[in-house]
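Thread: Newbie trying to understand structure tokens

Hi all, I'm a second-year student working on a class project, and my supervisor (Dr. K.) asked me to get a predicted structure for one chain before our next meeting. I've only ever worked with sequences, so writing a 3D structure as a token string is new to me. If someone could post the tokens and maybe explain what I'm looking at, I'd be very grateful. Here's the chain:
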Amino acid sequence: MRIIFQAQRTAKHGGGQSYNVSERVMTKKYTFSIWVAVLSLSTLGLTGCFSSHPKDIEAFLIPRDVNVTAKSYVFQPPDGIEIHCSNVPEINLQRQRIRPDGKVSFESLGEIEVAGKTTEEVADMLKQKVAELYTLPGDSPIDVRIFAYLSKVYYVLGQVARPGVKDYTGRDTLLSALAEAQPTILAWEQRVQVIRPSGDKNVKPKIFEVNFDRMSAHGDTSKDVLLQEGDIIYVPPTIFAAVAMVLEEIIRPIARAFSGAYLLQTGPSRTERAYGGGYGGY
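---
Reply by user tm_fold:
Sure, no problem. This is what the structure looks like when written as tokens:
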């Protein structure tokens, strides 16, 4: 027996308008199908986009196993250098940004090549220059310090309050980087990806996964690695957050068409933060 059921009812409203019940039901089913499809695609995309390997963590150093100090940092433009030498007023407490040619200059000492050198090496060079004009007591009369780390960077991307390029100091850890970047409520904290890119096409990047929730809430720092220049930390969105972002990409252009002007806010640059605002030349 073939039963044909047609649930079609027409209701009359003010103004002579009518609507079809079956059409409303079909519209709801169609909308529900779209939501299911978006959710399914987002889930598949997120679960399939990670290419981490647990053993890749072996390429990273653990902070407690390495003695890292500022003395091992190598200057490069446009790092900021600070000189301490109370016996030589001309250079004492002077701060300079390393020029693109790798040099800094002092009125009484001339130009000095500092790029590619450590703080101790620069101090020795300054000592030799100053010795031509002054008699310096003590074994270490000149102290060279770093006041702006600008030549080396790492990256924190994804669902964090402060994404972007981060100044690399040589002592940056995964935990400190995430704590500074502040994962948002949209972050999938259990699947944070730590990536060490490879400049060699024959060598695969090293990628491992870390549970930031376990690290921060339970003190599990077994995967708190020491970062290197160029490392990438990616904080992915949760599945539901990813679905919301897909829908936002669809809705936002339509909303902007009706909302008029919108405000774009930007923060200070890395150089402005390091030098306390703008600076005029070298």
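A couple of things are worth pointing out once you decode it. The helical segments are 21-49, 119-131, 174-181, 212-218, 239-259, 270-275. Residues 268 and 276 are 10 Å apart (CA to CA). Feel free to ask follow-ups in this thread.
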